[in-house]
Fold:
Amino acid sequence: MSKTTSTSDFLQKAKALVLEHLSDEQFGVSELAQATNMSRSNLLRKIKKETQLSASQFIRNIRLEKGKELLEATESTISEISYDVGFGNTSYFIKCFRELYGVPPGEIRKQPTEVAEEVIASETTLAAETPKKQGFFSKHTNKIIIAATLVVIVLIVFFWKETKADSPKPTSVQKSIAVLPFKNMSSDSTNYYFVNGLMEASLNNLQKIEELRVISRTSVEKYRNTTKTISEIAEELNVNYIIEGSGQKIENEVLLNIQLIDVTSDTPIWAAQYKHELDDIFSLQNNVAKKITTAIQVTVTPSELAQIEKKPTENLEAYDYYLRGLQPLQTQTREDLLKAISLFKKAVELDSKFALAYAKLALAYFYLDIYKQEKQYTNELNENADKALLHDPKSAESLIAKALYYMNNQEFNLAVPHLEKALEYNPNSAAVVLILSNLYARAIPNTKKYLKYALKGEQLNIQANDSIGKSFIYLHLGDALIQSGFVEEADKYMELSLAQNPNNPYVPYLQIFIKYAQHKSMQKTTEQLIAEWKKDTLRTDLLQEIGKMYYFQEDYENAHYYYKKYNALLDNAEIDIFPHENLKIAISYEKVGAKEAAKKYLDKYVAYCKKDVSLYKSASLAILHLYEGNKEAAIEQYKIFATKDHFQYWIVLFMEKDPLLKSLQSHPAYIETMQKIKDRFWENHQETKKMLQENGLL
Structure:
């Protein structure tokens, strides 16, 4: 047998094994290696040699190819197909699909020639919207991940399609429940949206109860067609109770079968069959929620009960349009978003006080603008958010809609109270927690609050995700921990992140700086950053850090070399990131004689300082004053900064590494002022530690 034939047989066998375990999202590289009786390293090498793909890419592409076949041959929804082919998260399926095929899944159902013509005719447009991968970052990805990293990525994945409320630690004392996807008993597939609506209404009502931990719809959707037992599902979701249901709509009647299962005994503790008139649908939903809370003995406060009993609308036709709009909203393709908007508009035309429909309209407009530097739908987003708040100011959805407007408008401080209030009305909202953690990470920096919400986000989200999702959640938490000075804890979460996804490119990057906090070797850190950058020379984040390390070491030739590469990528992408680093860039250019470029970046830094309203403004001004030779003004700004709270650990580690501070070391107040800044940080660190321990978060 020839080598080529042998290789072909191997790949065919590997593909057959992946297809055999297609719906099992846990079937990854290790499982494939075991199934082929190969070591993991041998499998990786063999697949790489024969396909030029990593093993994880090889598996993922097989899943995506099958997903494409199902899209073309079946009427299943994108959400259903994503779980059928082993993606635990619909948004991640859509993202990977677009990367492989250049179009979102929803476009595949157009006529093939139509799609081909679109791709050919609008290659430039598609490249702007969904770029082909260029190393780790493409031109567009730089814009999204770096320029819009404050909130956008988190919102894409989690907002109103939240991952489940869960903790990596057993929480058997807390009452927890999962509502499995209801089955459509009708032979009419057009009733699918209605049965989904019954399931989602039951889930939403339960999520309003603080004493009850409720798993989100996204997390349970993967069990729609599962063969797993109730016990197996409960163990995976770490819940005490499971709800199963089936339903259908026949003309003006609703039929619903539902049962509540105690997983400890694997037996139903409550079951009911309902046959109601359609105009009694809301009382049916409320009755189900009350029966369940009574059966599991959960305390429902009066305010929570009021939220549960509140009717979204009195107009059943409007409610029907609303339910029809939810599915296209979830897929997030432009075509489907416009379809969802049309359906939600019909809902509010029939009921002009339908707050929930206005909130979903706001969300749809937000998604339409999500990747655009020039926003087109800000007014529509704001108008619908305002109408949602006007008609239901105590709705979490209304509050989040308004928060989205403020974030879209860069008014982050105004978004926070709306998000915090939304969390009061929906304490199981992982989305709100994650949005808040991201806001406090960058937009309105506060390391204490960032860590608080990052830890809560991990508890709410971790078991809901596939390995890639889990890896990024652990990474997010590790970042929050190191920013607050918890070095050992951050290192632990980096290892957990790598264990979930060894190919997560951000983990080694952050690990380098966590290790620096331990060994304090600038040279070693520089060498490690360069080694990481060589894996993907288009990574602007690494280039900027390498330039900075050489700047700290006063190696301006090398600093200029890497800063020049960094700026070339930014110019090509037409973005300006890390503006607070522009003075270091200006000085590096100046030192090698590039006077004109130096002035360009100095002017940018001065403009940045004028606009800066963050807690770091005084520190930024201090270093500018030092550059200008004004030591007194500099020390005064550092004294101001010494009064600030919850700034990042990086300040303590790197502030005095800046060569400009050498000129300030002879100032009588220098040592005392620097020590006050460090003392302030460690006081905040201890305060944060105490808060986390008291709340069981550390």
User: Anything to note?
Assistant: The CA atoms of residues 159 and 431 lie 5 Å apart. The chain has four domains: 3-132, 175-311, 410-504, 505-692. The domain at 3-132 is CATH 1.10.10.60 (Arc Repressor Mutant, subunit A).
